Each structure stands twice: as C-alpha cells, then as structure tokens.
C-alpha cells in the first residue's frame, strides 16, 4: 500500500480529498494529515510517507518551502502540489523543486488525482530501484548555463578533436557520462503563429520558461538552439539494453509533452537519435533526430485528419474556407465559421483541440493574406486580437466573434485590393458582384449602386475586364460552383447557392464555361478525392 501524507490547511479541501474513491481500492492509503509544512516535516520521520499531497498556500510554511526542504534533505519523496491559483509562477517554483505535478483544487476529481498519484508512485519506485544504477540528473560542479552551452556546441558540430577532451572533462565533472549518448530534437508546434509578433524581451522570457520547465523535469541536459528548436542530451553510460533505453526515452517524451501541454498550453514534437553515440557523433545524431521530427505527421498535434475535426481544422473545412476566401464570399465564410464552432461544441472537443483548430484558422488567414500580397503590418493588425485571445482566453469557444471579425476584415481587405486594380466605377461594381453574386443582381441594379447609367458602366466594364457584365458575373458564379462540387456539395444543392434561378440555366452556363456538365464534373471530383 502506497502511503500518502496530505498537507492542507483548509478543512473543506481535506474532507473532499478524503471522500474521493482513489484510496485503498487502488493501492493508496492516507497515512496522515497536516495543516502546514512545519507540521508535515514533523510527521515525515514517524509516518515515512511514499508520496506527499500538499497545498501551495499555507500558514507558517507553504508548499513551495516544503518542496524545497524535501530536495535539500534529499528525502526522495515525490510531492504533488495543490492550489486554487492557475499561476505559472507557482508551477515554476514547485516544479523546480521536483514536484511531480500541479493540480488545481477546483478541477480536482477522482480521475485527475488517481492519474497523478500513479505518476508519483512510479517516480517513487524509480527512486527506490535506481534502474541499472542509473541517475541521469546531473548535479555536478559546473553550472547549468555552461552545460547548456556545451550541448549547443556539440549539436551544432562546433567541438573539434582538440576541444573534445575539454568537453569530456567538463561533463564528467558535472556527473554526466560521455558514453552511450542519445540526442533529442524538440520543437514547438505552431510557434511561428503564437509568437511571431512578440518583442525580443517577451520571446526571451517565453524561451526561458520553456527551458526552466523542461530542465526541471527532464533527465538530460536541455538547450535552446534557436527559434522553436531545442536539443536534449542524455547519457546511458551504465545501461546496455537498447530496449530499456527506448522505454526510458518514451517515458521522457510523454512526460515532457504532458507537462508543456498542461502548464504552458503548448504542444511539443520530440524525437531521438539512435543510442550509443560518442561525443563526436552528437551533431550527426541531432540531425538524425531532426529528420525524424520533420517527417512526423502533424495529425497528432491537431492537424490534418479529415475524420477527426475536433483535433484541428480538417482538410475538407480548410478547402471550403480557401474557396470562400478566393471568392471573397463573406456570407459563406461566416456560415463555415458557425459550422466549425457548432461541430466543436457538439463533439465536446477539449480546450486544447479547440485552441489548435483556431491556431490553424489564424495560420490559414495569414497564408491567404500573404498569397494576395497583403502587407505584413496589415496582417499583424488583423490577427492581433486572435493572437491575444488564444493566449489569454479561458474558453476558446468564446473566440468565435473575434475569428469571424478577423476573417470578415480580411475578405474586405482582399476586395479592396481587387477593386484597386480597376477604375473607381468598375472597382465598385466588381466589389458589388463579390458581395452579392448569389442574389438576383443585374447590370441595372449594379449601375444604380455605382451611381452611373447602365450603358456607361457596360462600356467601362467591358473595357477594363475584357468581359461583359453578364459573362463576368456568370464566371464568378460557376467558379464558386466548381469549388463547392470539389468540396462534395451535390449538384442539385448548388445552383441556387451561387445565384441561378433554375437548374437548366445553371447546367447550360456551366457547360458553356467549363466544357463539361455539372454531373460529370462532380463525378470526376469525387474520383480524384477518393
């Protein structure tokens, strides 16, 4: 039975934790309760707990100080932190002192507590076994910054044979073996979208936070290579089993991914080189790990699985949004965004899945803007509210209005750019067609909107576009119909959506412009996508 010491000053919280069905039936026992850190220290010798479950904020001695005491005394007792505050400052302090995990009281339930107790039990057993006599945590004589610089030079290939002996000595002094090495490559998913507008000071603080969190939990040496790229170096000098090393690395990967997702709300890609590297092979090993990283499918990070829309923006939905952008079709754009948010809500998608979907929508908007030559400052201004919302919002479903406003404004920007290619009257007419092509519009109605007579607009329009008004309007409608057919919308459902009053007339115009019938086009599109 794993003995757990509960350290919590609030009676209501202690009562709630006691009532959770995670104890004897799962191999855990509450061996004692303390109301502050000082009382807990007095009980440790007597009760010999395997795990400590402690509040952060308590009188006399808080949880941060208690976790520091456990490390200082080298007691090797895993500590799980509880708090009412979702603050990274608390997370950083406790994790730097070796806390296993950090739970918010208002989200504490049986599943979350049992999960973290299992992690603590595993860590306690690892501590007791010292697998293979291996202890990868380096507590040597050179400081962390120096070790990180050494690893950075190694992975970048800047350590020549003359310098190799010096590096070997430094790492050995740090208690870090230099044989049977493994190097890892790690990158932040969607980093360029999350931080591309931040000032150097903010970006540096963000990178420091990543390093601190990673180093507090990692069994290796972690260093920043540049932008979203990090390297990890591990020594398995006393382990000969490759399968055991692979198992340890998999645990490391899962632990780091979970920590970053939970405490910094970011996703990490992590891959490793082959094992058994020497110092001279670290640079090649890092390139090998990077190659694996680049080959990874982004589906698991909320990307490209059309059958799993809650995990990110599906391929089908991305095509539909691109089609609406191409046509500068704000009506369809708003309808698509409504559908995305409705599906996410109905599927009960997780906070992280929704956030990843929105990140991809911001990324898609930026890509469209760049494709159409929208200036970077304009894109920055358009995406700024969403970027802020993604970092700050407690519930990403509440960002619907912001993403709709961002997309609508980008559509308006694209219309303005298209309009600028023509004279004032024709540009205004083209803009009117873009926004009203699905309605029963005519040359006369457009001329009234523009403010000139019908014959003069017809003359200017033909001169500047090379097409008559009707031909331009029909081409716009048929192009949109082609996009909808490629997206899987049925022929019978399309013709009214793109502004035709009858199917027969739609059929005739479609064949005149494309050279094929709508049914044949639909069939060919289905075969190509299948």
Automatic annotation (TrEMBL):
It comes from the Bacteria. The modification 4-aspartylphosphate is found at residue 55. Residues 427-524 form the HTH araC/xylS-type domain. Residues 3-120 form the Response regulatory domain. InterPro entries: CheY-like_superfamily, Homeodomain-like_sf, HTH_AraC, Sig_transdc_resp-reg_receiver. CDD domains: REC_YesN-like. Keywords: DNA-binding, Phosphoprotein, Transcription, Transcription regulation. Signal peptide: none annotated. The keyword DNA-binding applies. The keyword DNA-binding applies. This is Helix-turn-helix domain-containing protein.
